[in-house]
Specification:
9-stranded mixed beta sheet; 61 strands
Length: 978
């Protein structure tokens, strides 16, 4: 029989062949398999043996291939410890920082392992401080956003750092101008705001243009407890004129200037000049009697010395320093005295003299002198006037008389109570009355027909009583007399976006660490930030650059920022908050779309590993290719130290080896431990190479033979010391807050926790994957010549890669682009998406160094990208027979959908989605139809979404074949059952 026919034959085929041959060679066999005779039994035994032989023959090529690969020493890669971060906090009331040394052990828990040992990877100074506020300032868009306030919430909400538009812009540029006197207005035509800037006329012109631009500025006043804009404002020669359609009436003596995106604005001074309307008195009194507005007797029909006419006007008499004019018209009326005129006293005679007929003389009683007074808070004082006819009532003019009293409003004029009114008052007081004591006469009494009041300021008005600026979330009082007068501030020396962090206590000590939990980053430029601390220098708060160690790659990935604290960390007021400040200043223009999930102070890098006790071995000079077996496998790391006490120290120094000398009490050398280096193979060593070959997977160490690898003299026993650490692989990928305690307590440390999940831990490399990796090495031989070579080299770069697909003549969008090569890398677990991929990409680039064709350049015509994750949302509607089946059916439908769409365990075969696989709606429908309690399916629709910037964008499921770099990802589903 032909060998190849026999090779492919199964047991059933072999029995049928024997049955056919038996008819010719052994016809006496009836060959009944169910009831075999002796010959048939022998044939069946032969068939079983031959089947087993064929099976083993099939395995021989694989065996030979494996034996060949074993010649290449396919060492399996060991397990890898998970990495993450742990945050510490001190007990309440702790005043000083507490140090945590490198290698401090912590204990975590997982479902698979009750106790996991974790170790800190760096030193840490735990400072007794808390992050209280996070504020982002963006001068380009004039925005301030308050992203975290410890008084409102203990947890920080995720934010898109330094991006636009801001979620809630708190920045305002407001200037409140108060003038207690000039802005006490009820009937004003307008308000002039005069700007003086003698030093810089161009700056004054710019300021006036800004303050009159309706697109940038709003002039407001209080009305019904709300700030409302003036109806009109325009630029005049030296200022701004504010007007309303009606007369201006202010509830409070202040106005507000509000600007959009204000820049620094400076002048010499501001003056307020209200434009007075013709005013009427608020109230009029003659002595204790209230008078009407017009047509009244100013001093009654009978007056006496020290009678007074009281005139009140809050708007008028609060204008300190202004020139006030009282205009009024009056007539003089004659009023008889109240006394009876005596009858003529004539002594009648037959003949009378002229003197005997003389009647009583009727005299005129009139006001011959008056004075104008005001209340100065202590008493009534004479008011100095510029125009005032004190004898205006001493006239016999019968026609209406118009008089003016002009005076400058005194600075000490105060309010007082006259009659029933508390107000600002002046009074016209009678000083002298002619014929005041006559009993026979007529009163010449003035009757007021109208009274008008008016005021005007000289020299463009008066300075404000107070100026208050509200910017950067802070109220600031400004002295109106200060020179120069800064109406609005700029951003100081900061002309870039910045993230401000406020702490409740100074950051003192070292090393201080801040953990930044970073999410999505779409811009990969580096060196975009500088760190600054607000320090006290020469009794002044000043921003000073500080040196940092930045593991975040300028906030492009989750990591720790390390710096040294300073005793001069100043406590200062910024943005309405008092505390100790750090800021992160962007040094390049443009936006940086960084999703910042949280910031944690007192955080340190931690890895899941356990440092084991050192093991000692003896190695002598004649022991060639000696193997040393450690007590543990899957080593995280190891160091080999050899005691070379008899070797000259100068030789060790000349070889640039790390060494540690151990001395006795009397100073005699007891040991000289020299650190040896690990090599991939003995072929890399010569007779002087202090090296070894390690198998971290098996926990074994191999030494050379004095030709390939130096050997010590071996005079001392236990002259080999191995320091090593082990890990538990994927078991270390614990969820957040699973690390809760220290292996050994530290004084004043209150809590320990991991704020984000650990990641990166994985099991040892399987034998199959190791063989595949080695076999691919034979094909590519360390050079990327084909897309298969790219895939194999990238897969060997890190064990955390699930799949690679390299596409030639394709750009990062999956489009045809001649000469470009793109490798799509799918991480091994969903937890690695976004943040971890950047670290993975860096490992891949480092691994590919020297292996790419010279024509390919990173990020120019060769790209390493993540897959385009297509999120599939399923809309499902179905019917059930009984309401009692609702919950079970709902869960079954949801489970079927989630099982199919799972990125890593879904798809039709349960092995996850490969790069470029498209969803099959019919297959999903068939899986759901298997649910017994589901009677009918009305609707099954698959909707696709893709991440576009910060939002999900819907795309048609029919165009997914245009994206060869896609990978399916489970989304949110709408399931409806009736």
């Amino acid at each position: 029989m032909n060998y190849f026919d026999l090779k492919n034959m199964t047991r059933t085929q072999l029995i049928e062949t024997l049955k056919t041959l038996s008819k010719s060679y052994t016809p006496e066999w009836h060959f009944d398999v169910e009831n075999p005779d002796l010959g048939t039994a022998l044939a069946l035994i032969y068939a079983d043996m031959m089947t087993d032989t064929i099976k083993k023959a099939h395995q021989m090529p694989d065996k030979h291939y494996i034996d060949f690969l074993n010649l290449l020493d396919p060492v399996q890669k060991p397990s890898k410890g998970a990495k993450g971060y742990v945050t510490f906090s001190l007990s309440e009331g702790t005043k000083e920082g507490v140090s945590v040394p490198l290698g401090k052990q912590l204990i975590g828990e997982s479902d698979a392992e009750e106790n996991l040992i974790f170790e800190t990877m760096d030193d840490l100074m735990i400072v007794p401080s808390k992050l209280e506020n996070i504020i982002v300032v963006n001068p380009e868009t004039d925005e301030i956003t308050h992203h975290f306030n410890h008084l409102k919430s203990e947890d920080m909400a995720p934010l898109y750092l330094l991006d636009t538009p801001a979620p809630q812009n708190l920045q305002t540029h407001e200037l409140v101008i108060r003038q207690d006197n000039a802005l006490t207005l009820n009937h004003a035509h307008g308000i002039e705001i005069h700007i003086e800037d003698v030093q810089n006329k161009l700056r004054k012109a710019y300021t006036l243009s800004q303050l009159s631009d309706p697109e940038k500025v709003a002039w407001l006043y209080l009305k019904d407890q709300n700030w409302v804009p003036f109806d009109h404002y325009k630029q005049i020669e030296s200022g701004i004129l504010l007007k309303n359609n009606l007369l201006i009436e202010l509830e409070t003596p202040e106005i507000k200037l509000k600007m959009k995106r204000a820049t620094e604005m400076i002048c010499d001074e501001i003056k307020i000049n209200p434009i007075s309307d013709v005013l009427k008195p608020d109230a009029l009194y003659y002595n204790e009697m209230e008078l009407p507005e017009k047509d009244f007797m100013m001093f009654g029909t009978q007056f006496f010395a020290y009678d007074a006419l009281y005139i009140s006007s809050e708007e008028l008499l609060t204008k300190k320093g202004s020139l006030i004019t009282l205009s009024f018209e009056y007539i003089l009326e004659r009023h008889k005295t109240p006394f009876d005129v005596p009858p003529p006293n004539i002594k009648w005679k037959n003949v009378l003299k002229k003197s005997d007929l003389k009647e009583p003389v009727i005299k005129e009683i009139f006001i011959s002198d008056i004075v104008l007074e005001y209340w100065n808070g202590v008493g009534w004082s004479k008011l100095e006037t510029e125009t005032f006819n004190r004898k205006m009532f001493a006239t016999d003019d019968n026609e209406p008389i118009v008089q003016k009293i002009i005076f400058r409003c005194p600075d000490d004029l105060m309010s007082t109570t006259v009659g029933a009114y508390e107000n600002y008052w002046i009074r016209l007081k009678i000083i002298k009355v002619e014929n005041a004591y006559t009993t026979l006469g007529d009163y010449i009494a003035p009757k007021l027909r109208w009274l008008k009041l008016h005021y005007v300021y000289d020299e463009h008005g008066v300075l404000p009583s107070a100026l208050k600026r509200y910017e950067f979330l802070t109220d600031q009082e400004i002295d109106p007399k200060s020179r120069p007068l800064r109406l609005f501030s700029d951003y100081g020396a900061l002309n870039a976006k910045a993230l401000y962090l406020q702490f409740d206590a100074p950051l003192i000590g070292a090393p201080i660490k801040l953990l930044f939990d970073v999410g999505t980053v779409t811009d990969l430029k580096s060196n975009r930030f500088k760190w600054q601390m607000l320090k006290r220098i020469a009794n002044k708060a000043k921003w000073v650059d500080i040196d940092i160690i930045d593991d975040t790659n300028s906030l492009h990935e989750t990591g720790v920022v390390t710096f040294i604290g300073d005793e001069n960390h100043a406590r200062s007021d910024l943005f309405g908050h008092r505390g100790y400040w750090l800021r992160l200043v962007q040094t390049e223009a443009g936006t940086l779309p960084v999703l910042l999930n949280a910031i944690y102070l007192n955080s340190v890098n931690v890895t899941q590993k356990e440092t084991k006790q050192s093991q000692y071995f003896s190695l002598r000079h004649h022991e060639y290719h000696k193997e040393m077996v450690l007590n543990h496998e899957n080593l995280e790391s190891l160091e080999v130290w050899v005691n070379e006490l008899n070797v000259d120290m100068e030789e060790i120094k000349k070889a640039n080896c790390d060494y540690r000398q151990v001395l006795s009490v009397d100073g005699t050398p007891e040991a000289l431990w020299v650190k040896w280096d690990a090599y991939e193979s003995f072929s890399e060593m010569n007779a002087t190479t202090r090296g070894y070959v390690a198998n971290a997977f098996a926990g074994r160490i191999h030494f050379g033979d004095s030709v390939h690898g130096f050997l010590p003299d071996g005079i001392n026993e236990n002259n080999i010391r191995v320091d090593y650490e082990v890990n538990l692989g994927e078991y270390g990928n614990v969820a957040a807050y699973e690390i809760k305690r220290l292996a050994q307590t530290i004084s004043n440390v209150n809590t320990v926790f991991n704020p984000i999940p650990f990641q990166g831990g994985h099991a040892p490399e399987s034998r199959k994957r190791a063989l595949n990796r080695i076999s691919e090495t034979i094909h590519h031989r360390g050079r990327a010549r084909s897309t298969r070579d790219f895939d194999a080299l990238i897969l060997s770069a890190d064990y955390d890669i699930k799949e690679v697909l390299t596409l030639s003549n394709t750009d990062t969008f999956g489009r045809f682009s001649l000469g470009k090569v793109t490798s799509i890398v799918l991480p091994k677990s969903e937890t690695y998406m976004q943040d971890y991929f950047r670290t993975l990409k860096a490992k891949i680039k480092n691994h590919l160094n020297g292996k790419l064709p010279c024509t390919l350049k990173y990020d120019y015509n060769y790209f390493i990208i993540e897959p385009l994750y297509i999120i599939i949302d399923v809309q499902f509607k179905g019917k059930i027979a009984d309401v009692t089946d609702y919950l079970g059916t709902y869960n079954a439908v949801e489970k079927a959908i989630n099982r199919y769409l799972d990125t890593y365990k879904g798809n039709k075969n349960g092995e996850g989605w490969h790069i470029g696989d498209l969803p099959d709606e019919q297959y999903l429908l068939s899986q759901i139809q298997r649910i017994d309690t589901l009677k009918d399916i009305n609707l099954l629709v698959l909707n696709a979404k893709v991440q576009d910037g910060y939002q999900l964008k819907e795309i048609s499921i029919n165009v997914l074949n245009q994206f060869p770099h896609l990978v399916i990802k489970n989304g949110n589903h709408a399931i409806s059952l009736k």
